[in-house]
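Fill in residues.
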């Protein structure tokens, strides 16, 4: 398990560049957010609870997911967790004036090693963060997520995975690069991002595991109704219910 302080996310330049340009190299990022919102609308708002729902945003970045969820669910309250002070500052700025919001500065390693997360939350979300942990650490974090949820609470993870075989992995990398090139052409972007897939593969801090292994780990912990809700090459949304 790599330490957050040694990762690129601890560097201001990297994290700020990601926030500014993620839509140009994260495949169908807006669509993945739409799927997450639809899931929340159907499974959380659709059950008609009278009590305000609690949201936990792990690896919250600039708070974009929490911002969208709170616009969808005005009565909810949220806790945002990130290992980057700069990202938390951006999240605070995005959510300025929004009530019922708390922030926790903690890495996944600190979450795994301590009792940091709130308990009894209704919905846990994470986006493109958990893949920085190896499978052992992912499983430990999933257990922490399970413990944080109330019964019938849901966990949804937007993340990258590794293919079950090398031939598919090679194609997924090519598919990703093709999408970036097409987006650059359609938007007539001056910046070039087609090096991002190769850079992603070269960084040791990226430790994706297969979708099947992660779903199996969730089921072993006790999650049910687990499934993959979206997939485009390595980009996926999966989750389940406590």
């Amino acid at each position: 398990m790599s330490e957050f302080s040694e990762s690129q996310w601890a560097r201001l330049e990297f994290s700020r560049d990601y926030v500014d340009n993620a839509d140009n190299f994260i495949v169908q990022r807006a669509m993945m957010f739409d799927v997450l919102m639809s899931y929340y609308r159907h499974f959380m708002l659709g059950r008609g609870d009278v009590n305000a729902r609690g949201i936990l945003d792990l690896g919250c970045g600039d708070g974009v997911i929490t911002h969208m969820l709170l616009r969808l669910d005005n009565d909810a309250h949220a806790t945002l967790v990130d290992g980057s002070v700069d990202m938390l500052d951006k999240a605070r700025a995005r959510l300025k004036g929004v009530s019922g919001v708390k922030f926790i500065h903690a890495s996944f390693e600190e979450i795994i090693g301590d009792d940091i997360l709130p308990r009894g939350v209704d919905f846990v979300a994470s986006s493109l963060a958990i893949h920085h942990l190896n499978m052992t650490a992912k499983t430990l974090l999933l257990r922490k997520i399970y413990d944080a949820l109330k019964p019938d609470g849901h966990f949804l993870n937007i993340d990258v995975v590794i293919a079950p075989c090398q031939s598919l992995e090679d194609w997924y990398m090519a598919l990703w690069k093709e999408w970036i090139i097409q987006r650059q052409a359609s938007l007539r972007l001056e910046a070039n991002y087609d090096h991002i897939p190769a850079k992603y593969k070269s960084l040791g801090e990226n430790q994706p595991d297969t979708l099947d292994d992660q779903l199996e780990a969730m089921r072993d912990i006790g999650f049910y109704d687990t499934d993959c809700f979206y997939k485009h090459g390595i980009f996926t949304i999966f989750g389940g219910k406590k």
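Residues 4-161+207-241 form a domain with the Rossmann fold fold (CATH 3.40.50.150).
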